[in-house]
Amino acid sequence: MPQQQPARVPGAWPALPPITSWPEYGTPAYYNADPFSREKRFSVFVAAEQWRLQGQALEELDDVEWYVHTFGDARRLASQIIAATNRIRGFQEIREARQVRHAPHVLQASPGWPPIAIPGQPGRWLTYEQRQEAA
Fold first, then answer.
1. For 72-89, what is each residue's pLDDT tens digit?
2. Among 2, 4, 6, 46, which residue's beta carbon has the most beta carbons within 10 A?
């Protein structure tokens, strides 16, 4: 008996090849893909299924395991944040540092660099050759 071919209904979807690769949801490849491509839509379905499985796995945990899974690293993270906060200078410390007066910076020309405009003396420039002559 000959093998029968599926009936071709006018206007029906054509037989599409299987999807073998798709961009991972949320990656640059996903955002660069054609918005109407099958692969992009498939990656949305894959991400939704992963989200569903993750939620299902969390529901199966007992209370203690769920708490450890959700907040287990919170103490270490909090200690890191507190340590970083302690390293930041406080408002009072910054204010006191700004009130300390330092001697003005002495201009020094460097070889290979363009001339330096001398502040308060319009039209005067400090060049490396001038500095060498002064020495």
1. 777 777 888 888 888 787
2. 46
